[in-house]
Design brief:
The complex is a heterodimer of chains A (112) and B (113). With 112 residues, chain A is mainly beta. Chain A contains no helices and 11 strands. In chain A, strand 7 and strand 8 form a beta hairpin. Chain B is an all-beta fold and 113 residues long. The chains are: A mainly beta (112), B mainly beta (113). At the A-B interface, strand 4, strand 5, strand 9 and strand 10 of A face strand 5, strand 9 and strand 10 of B.
Chain lengths: 112, 113
């Protein structure tokens, strides 16, 4: 069974631009969540999607948004990028009833 | 929000040694998850614990769910070079998991040959 796939692996963007990251969950997993990982703050929950609906969002500004498609694939968007948005963005998927989250390899975003 | 405190922050050990690390919380968790992250990769789930007092093994790894439900422990026996990495404990922010996971800051394991 294929794992969680995130694209692209690396991205360099300029301040003020916007970016879209993609995540394909494990087959059969309908829940997809996103995390931001930085050296200072560690791993922080961004939001979770289930059946195309955002169920919850962490303490992040409105510039961070996402969506989920009918095939459970998810995208995350960050608008008006700031230098502090540089981070490893991780996507995780889980079954509808399970608490165990399985992570992708992440997208390394660098904002210059 | 909830916070998880992991200790030690770093461990420098010799190959073949046993390793112990722990995770504590000020609030009760109903599930504890342990992950390992290699540089440039996403966290990989090692062990999941669901019941207070539970002891679960995965090869050379053993994890325990503390009876107070506010702590968990991870032990690695006979460490080998591929055990190097960052170990995270995590717990769900809500019972159903829809609020995502809270992670500790991690324990960096470094093995000296």
């Amino acid at each position: 069974k294929a794992g969680v796939t995130q694209t692209p692996r690396y991205l360099i963007k300029t301040r003020g631009q916007q970016v879209t990251l993609s995540c394909s969950p494990i087959s059969g997993h309908r829940s997809v969540s996103w995390y931001q990982q930085t050296p200072g703050q560690g791993l922080q929950f961004l939001f979770e999607y289930f059946s195309e609906t955002q169920r919850n969002k962490g303490n992040f500004p409105g510039r961070f948004s996402g969506r989920q498609f009918s095939n459970s694939r998810s995208e995350m968007n960050v608008s008006t990028l700031e230098l502090g948005d540089s981070a490893l963005y991780l996507c995780a998927s889980r079954t509808a009833w399970g608490l165990e989250a399985f992570f992708g390899q992440g997208t390394r975003l660098t904002v210059v | 929000g909830q916070q998880l405190n992991q200790s030690p922050q770093s461990m420098f050990i010799q190959e073949g040694e046993d390793v112990s690390m722990n995770c504590t919380s000020s609030s009760i968790f109903n599930t504890w998850l342990w992950y390992k992250q290699d540089p440039g990769e996403g966290p990989v789930l090692l062990i999941a614990l669901y019941k207070a007092g539970e002891l679960t093994s995965n090869g050379r790894l053993t994890a325990q769910f503390g009876i107070t439900r506010k702590d968990s422990f991870l032990n690695i026996s006979a460490s080998i070079p591929s055990d190097v990495g960052i170990y995270f404990c995590a717990g769900p922010n809500s019972g159903g998991g829809a609020d995502g996971l809270t992670f500790g800051k991690g324990t960096h394991l470094i093995i000296q040959p």
